[in-house]
């Protein structure tokens, strides 16, 4: 490809020069005369140029600098050093340079050289293109410079003629067809390879008869590419068939427009490349279909038991060098190598164990599944699948992390139980239906409740009579029931004091938990000295309990991810027909499974993001984010939902929106969460998104005309797992806005919500350009 690019570059330059040479051949003598005249004028010119840039740099012939007694001068200030321009002339000339650079004056003055006392005429004005704007071209009288200019031009003309001859020879010797078209797009020049391809006697015959390289007319014809290239103003590539040497070949034709209406072209024979590409694509597709459907290590053996395919996860899992696997080892050798690397389970009779796995090649069973526990504690799930052609496919799933997480979860549960039982507080957790789900030993002791009865998980309504019998004021027990309901249903935290009939006093608190449950705590505050210590211990216990809850939710989310991935993978295999063709209803069921897997995966990702945010573990993947493009993508995805509800969906992207440094995925999810809420809670009217920005920040306003939020709810919409009762009687679990604030604040931005019940809600997202906290 590098050779192709180099040849194309040389050809384009050569074709241009050749075309110009052909079209200007009749003017060559006249051009030579003009060149000689110009050379004579330059030789006789009594002035020399001095170019002064805006920043004070100068560019001049060294001879002129010697005449000015300023050899080696690099800036205009250097012209006055030593015995150069006199200070008065230098200062006056410098003042005039500023006026000329602005285009309001020209220079005509005489200056004196201090070393020789000579007077020189200086004339000048703004320098023409391609000099940078603000440059000034000065002409200083000196006849010798014109002679050198004439010689330089003559040398340049000779070099151009030599280069044109060399390029013409290069084009003629090129191993691929090249041509030039003029006027009516007929052939004006062809090289030797073109003549050989069309089997013509010489180039003149090809041009005279108009013999084309490819057959056909119209859009498929040889001239069509030249016409399109000249019309579009850039190179046009086409792939067309042609008959070369009695064989049908595939050619890549390139037409390049040149100045003056000339079009150059060249062709490459890509038949072998196309054949190789087709074969490679077929082979890569078969391997990709296997590899892309596996989330773990995968290998495949041919009927002769040699390794024909492996993926990178298998090389890592087996700790075997890819170079060795590329050699296609036999099945037994591979198992022996894995045993040497301690990547097989320890067995008493390895030859017999190996022979049993070798029988998988000829087994009548469709799938062989095993669990391998390695010496280092790794846990592998191995699935062997005999292939119809006598080969074997084996899939390796590393379940080590899953097993460890399960063990960590069990340990976490035991630690939590031990922690709760050793707290000084009485702790109880009530589910959203008011049922007691978790408690510690001290909670039962405070209320003198039987442990076996608590093990039946009574509801709070059943506990109230038992509470009332222990209180100084039995009617206060009803308040405990309302506290639990308020914490679970209304997500309201409250606290207070209780006085027991035996003289003890307790401080209690009802706290809503992120999972919708309510935490009820009690602590004995009978004497003031114990109050301070007990409150300190309670705070520590609650912090530990919060960490335990957060880690528990995160671990459970990770625990759910692996079986969910397996469910999605097997469902995709069912959909693709690996277990046989599916009936119509079965396809619908599988589609429903995949949709549910996708929704549950997104929910798990949201829960993990929330728990990571609670621990401060949010890690952003920095990249340049085109905010305008991101907003267009998100709004296009949301438009169908808005149209389905009959809403007007307006998007106004300000010119200052631009881009920023941030996490593309999390910024996209933040906008999706807010827009999804706006559409979901707007029954009529419109949803509007407006952006504006400056050099420091970008503001994104999302407003709707929906039902709005009550004032008491607005302060809690950014709390994790917040629930609100909707008009339809459903309980909405709020993950979107907490995630949005978490992601935006991770970028150093802010989220502000304003809502009027019955009139609508607006959310203003402010993001800094740098995306830093």
TrEMBL record:
<dbReference type="InterPro" id="IPR004358">
    <property type="entry name" value="Sig_transdc_His_kin-like_C"/>
</dbReference>
<dbReference type="InterPro" id="IPR003661">
    <property type="entry name" value="HisK_dim/P_dom"/>
</dbReference>
<dbReference type="Pfam" id="PF00512">
    <property type="entry name" value="HisKA"/>
</dbReference>
<keyword id="KW-0597">Phosphoprotein</keyword>
<keyword id="KW-0418">Kinase</keyword>
<dbReference type="InterPro" id="IPR005467">
    <property type="entry name" value="His_kinase_dom"/>
</dbReference>
<dbReference type="InterPro" id="IPR036097">
    <property type="entry name" value="HisK_dim/P_sf"/>
</dbReference>
<keyword id="KW-0808">Transferase</keyword>
<dbReference type="InterPro" id="IPR003594">
    <property type="entry name" value="HATPase_dom"/>
</dbReference>
<dbReference type="InterPro" id="IPR036890">
    <property type="entry name" value="HATPase_C_sf"/>
</dbReference>
<dbReference type="Pfam" id="PF12860">
    <property type="entry name" value="PAS_7"/>
</dbReference>
<dbReference type="InterPro" id="IPR035965">
    <property type="entry name" value="PAS-like_dom_sf"/>
</dbReference>
<protein>
    <recommendedName>
        <fullName>histidine kinase</fullName>
        <ecNumber>2.7.13.3</ecNumber>
    </recommendedName>
</protein>
<dbReference type="Pfam" id="PF02518">
    <property type="entry name" value="HATPase_c"/>
</dbReference>
<keyword id="KW-0902">Two-component regulatory system</keyword>
<feature type="domain" description="Histidine kinase">
    <location>
        <begin position="555"/>
        <end position="771"/>
    </location>
</feature>
<dbReference type="GO" id="GO:0000155">
    <property type="term" value="F:phosphorelay sensor kinase activity"/>
</dbReference>
<dbReference type="InterPro" id="IPR050736">
    <property type="entry name" value="Sensor_HK_Regulatory"/>
</dbReference>
